[in-house]
User: What shape does this take?
Amino acid sequence: MTRSYRALDPTKVLETLEKLELRISARFPNSGLSRVCASLIDIAKQTSQRIDYVSRPNWALRLLLVAIVGASLIILTYLASQVSALKGTDQWSEAVQGLDALFNLLVLLGGGAFFVSTLETRWKRARALAALHELRSIVHVIDMHQLTKDPSAMGAVRTPSSPDRNLSPIELVRYLDYCSEMLSLTAKCAALYAERLSDSVVVDTVGDLERLTSDLSNKIWQKITIIETLYGRDVPLPFTEQSYRNPGV
Assistant: This one.
């Protein structure tokens, strides 16, 4: 079967995350960042299942909608036939009250049909927004991990309240790059919802999440640039020739 390169593959996103978690664990064993990546893997697994679940049609609601529409058509047909039969007869005034009740029932069924027709969309939207909120939360957790990794403070005099800064410039670059990769993959998990659900609220929420991860990633790369400026180009930055030759670093 030919693989499609026009849409994200949840399996490939998950595989990339699992490889990233192995890389983080190898370089920073038992670190908080590796545990965050493991949590992100769990969310990615749930994302695939949730997307399949919410993208399936809800046949119970759709059958209910068909039944309501069918009942409305039957009542409408009956009303039309009664109006034609009673028009101009002495029974017309006596039947108006009954026809009015049927008309009110028709209006009620129409409102019910509209409610049911939007219920499936609103239900799927609620499930997707809850999942996207979970992804947004882990984005902020990733940001918290890179928050104290400030290269401009390396070598500064420590205070009792100073965070631990025991990473070398090379390790700091790798740590920040891992955070950037995790942010990007989190955005890819969110994009899966926008691909499968055409709801405008979901698409806008995914767009906001993608902009958030992009802004945070840019902040991380500013730190990487500072490291290059402070310690020279001997520090192996991500995506250099050395990284391509040794993709596991």
The longest helix spans residues 92-147. DSSP finds seven helices and no strands in the chain.
